[in-house]
Amino acid sequence: MKRIISFLFIIAIALPLHAVRDRDMIVLVHPFSNTGDNRYEWLSAGMADSVISDLMMVKNVRVISEKDRRKTVKEIEFSMSGMVDEQAAVKAGSMVGANVIFTGSFAVINNNVRVVAKLIDVKSGELMKTAKLDGTLDKIFQLQDRIVITLLSEAQKIELKDVRPVVITEEDKNAIHNKPEVSFSAYELYSKGLQIRYNNPSKALGYYKKAIEYDPNYGDALEQAGYISGSVFNRFDESIDFLNRAERVFRNHPGEQSEKYANVIIDIGTIYWSKGELDRARDYYSKARDIFDSLGMRNSFGYASASWGLGLIYYGKRQTAESLRYYNESQSIYEILGLQNTTSFADLMTNFGSLYHTMYRHDDALSYYFKSRSILDGLQLQNTTAYANALWGIGLIYYEKQNYDEALRYYTSAERTMVNLRMQDTAAYANLIMNVGIVHERLNRLDDAMRYYNRCKNIFETLNLQNTLNFGNLLMNMGLVFQRQNNNRQALQYFFSSKSLLERLQVQNSQSYANALYNIAYTYDVQGQREQAVQYYRSAADIYRNINIRDWEQRARNRIQELGY
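Now predict its structure.
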């Protein structure tokens, strides 16, 4: 008789969202620090956002998005203790493959604003240029445009190996200067939202919405509101509404054939991906690729990101050949751009590992997880979530190879990294210790397994995640322990609870639901309740067939035949 199924959590890495171009200069904008009145602290985030937006208008310069900058900074915060601001900026720049950094400081006195703009070479860490610019609050947008033009003019003088010289044309300058006007009040509210978006996303969303009330066509505020409402709060309908409005604004300016427009299309695709509407997400990622292609940006971070997204879509649809094709396409672009030693490339290697894991190509999966770990070791990023994910993946493969001691060793290392990062109250940590529990169950340490499962359950309940797919999988694993303790009544209770939850989530055509049915069938089987067992084996086999999991389909059908049905 075949073994009862337990659930393994497989890592999914968030894709980067914005673009940089092949061989063009890559710019990281680090927030300008406030050296004056604290009432204007919000201007730091607003100024950085405006500089990024202006740089996206320049055809032969690529800019790192604030999302990607923040993701990298969060990854390296553990190792940034004691660094001054510029050192931290250089470290972040090297992690994302930037060539130069635009940063500086500002001070507001009455209505006057003085900005000290700085241009830093990432490779050497050298301050290449400092420029002082003066303006007023009521003309802050013109001042921000001057910051960009000034720093780009200085960047034209820099010669970097394998990087095209910067050229800023009159067309680029006109695109920067001729943006749609936004009221100062809306801009202030939007910037205050940017300032707190990571620490207080709910309040940030409130600021964005107020900014939109002042200016219903404020594209940047619409995009930020859409992204945060979908990615943080899972308010998918609200998110799509905001992002569709942003798409209409950007369609008018800077236009459908622009990097900014392509980025909001990727954002919409990402929300549909999070929502589980894979076909719609695929359509948006494909559209974004077409835009980047039409802009001559096939070898760009943006095109690579859209391809990566398509790889994730096909991964979710279990179309592994297509997923592998798009991952390979993304990898090739990263290699052309010389970005093999970045955190994003390490994330991509981890995604390769997850894909090969689902293809049962365990040696290939292990190779990619080790590649990811090696890149992060070289970047000295051992205390990061990316590193924990790589260790986690290695543990998964050793588990599949039934090398449970090695699996436990890598899981424990991943857990230790997460504890260092103070992630004990997160869903990711809960899922990891669920996997630790699975290993203990395999080693017949049933009390230890249940201890880890209960810890996982407590975290899920604290986070109000009882109505989620992974909670359903946890209930299944807890039922497994009871089944192995010959407590079949309690095992069935947990398996049926898992089944009911998955039905409420409307995921009946999923591996998790098929596993729940198979586990129920197995428990009836060991109790000699053959008719009930066959009923559930048959239902499980039908779903396994629908989702193309042939080995478990065959196991279920074989057992039906063994039972004489």
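The two ends are 15 Å apart (CA to CA).
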